[in-house]
UniProtKB/TrEMBL annotation:
One GO MF term attached to the UniProt entry: GDP-dissociation inhibitor activity
GO terms under cellular component: cytosol
Protein known as: Domain found in IF2B/IF5-domain-containing protein
Annotated source species: Crucibulum laeve
Keyword terms, alphabetized: GTP-binding, Initiation factor, Nucleotide-binding, Protein biosynthesis
GO BP annotation list: formation of cytoplasmic translation initiation complex
Family: Belongs to the eIF-2-beta/eIF-5 family.
Xref: PANTHER family: EUKARYOTIC TRANSLATION INITIATION FACTOR (PTHR23001), EUKARYOTIC TRANSLATION INITIATION FACTOR 5 (PTHR23001:SF7)
Bias-annotated ranges (Acidic residues): 166-177
Highest taxon, organism lineage: Eukaryota
Length: 399
């Protein structure tokens, strides 16, 4: 049985290409009219493509004019008839082109979104790399199967995929509005301790004071690379992190199109060799955002979707938020819940990560007192997350 790992895009020969998948394998079972092709690693291949294994299996059936069957519990996916592995691999390439790769940038970091328009539905690929949304060919038979079997919403602790989110946007605006209103109300009703915290954060807003805070920020950027984020590290204004921070700060005010600027930021980080480093997250947050952060986040969502690739990156992003509201713009303390909600709804931070962050004070990015105040301000958002989970559990119990 053939095995191995191959590039998702078979036309890319680069052995360092980051998007990889297991080589599709097959096994012929039965004989005569009962002969069938079993695909032992269909789940692994589909997982690498971020698609349900039923989609790929059904696609083979549509292309070959064959019946298909799935036994998801036992991880068994079958196409009736005898089909060699090479033929199915060729068809898998076609599936990837039609239902996975972004039509704009050819990146596989996409999610299928089902949009309802009256009595009809459209399926689009939502690209997390470039931010483009491109349609699929609705004439293909697989689209009917996808509409009838949309991606299953993730259970507690995992946010649903882009398809679920889009469906909610099309038909669940009322739910989104209620959620937003609830967050706003809770953020406005921070308890007395949080209100006092805000008073403690009263800061000198004179130009000289702002310059001093920016100098401190630049020093913290340098410390991120010199001492692994340890306190007391020597500053290095020539580190790639400091260079990136200064470059973003210098170009930020001349931005006409956030999307273009986001691409430029990524290319600059790539040029400096730190585009994949988790320590880059606090630098981007501190240098990019201002006191208008709530409006700015939306325009730079594709950038964060590109660079935040692990739990460690998420924690560093949250560390950047601590520095942003704790050192540069202390008046933003009351809107911390809204900042977290924006990143959560954009699928940048996960529930488990932000919940753990919110309940564990740390001196990694700011002093302990500042860390406490930022987490205290985040309580309305954390409470909303907990309540949402409780509601989901209650619905499951009712079923």
């Amino acid at each position: 049985m053939a095995s191995g790992i191959v590039n998702i895009r078979r036309d890319v020969d680069d052995k360092f290409y980051r998007y990889r998948m297991p080589l599709l394998t097959t096994k012929i079972e039965g004989k005569g009219n009962g002969i069938k092709t079993v695909i032992p690693n269909m789940s692994d291949v589909a997982q690498a493509l971020s698609r349900p294994p039923t989609y790929t299996t059904k696609f083979f059936g549509c292309e070959l004019g064959a019946q298909t069957s799935f036994d998801e519990k036992n991880d068994r996916y079958i196409v009736n008839g005898a089909h060699n592995a090479d033929r199915l691999r060729e068809l898998l390439d076609v599936f990837i082109d039609k239902f996975v790769l972004c039509k704009s940038c050819k990146n596989p970091e996409t999610e299928l979104v089902i949009l309802k328009k009256g009595r009809t539905e459209d399926i689009i690929r939502d690209c997390k790399a470039c931010g483009e949304r491109t349609g699929v060919d609705m004439r293909h038979k697989l689209t009917t199967f996808i509409v009838k079997n949309p991606p299953v919403k993730a259970k507690k602790g995992k946010k649903g995929n882009a398809g679920d989110a889009a469906a909610e946007d099309g038909d669940g605006n009322e739910s989104d509005d209620m959620m937003t209103k609830k967050i706003k109300a809770e953020a406005a009703e921070l308890n007395t301790e949080a209100a006092l915290a805000k008073e403690d954060w009263s800061a000198d807003t004179s130009p000289e004071a702002v310059k001093q805070r920016m100098k401190a920020l630049e020093g913290s950027m340098a410390a991120a690379v010199i001492g692994g984020d340890d306190e007391g590290s020597d500053e290095d204004v020539n580190s790639p992190y400091s260079v990136l921070g200064r470059w973003i700060d210098e170009t930020r005010d001349d931005v006409d199109d956030p999307k273009t600027h986001a691409i430029a930021i990524y290319k600059k980080a790539e040029e400096l060799g730190i585009e994949k480093k988790h320590k880059t997250m606090p630098v981007i947050v501190q240098a990019l955002f201002t006191d208008d952060v709530l409006k700015q986040i939306e325009g730079y969502t594709p950038l964060f979707a590109k660079v935040v690739t692990s739990e460690k990156h998420q924690k560093s992003l949250l560390g950047g938020i601590e520095r942003l509201v704790g050192l540069a713009y202390p008046d933003l303390l009351p809107v911390v819940p809204k900042i977290l909600m924006a990143f959560y709804q954009a699928d940048i931070i996960d529930e488990e990560v932000v919940t753990q962050w919110g309940t564990h004070v740390s001196k990694k990015y700011v002093d302990k007192d500042t860390s406490k105040k930022v987490r205290k301000a985040s309580e309305p958002f954390l409470t909303w997350l907990a309540d949402a989970d409780d509601d989901e559990d209650d619905e499951e119990d009712d079923e």
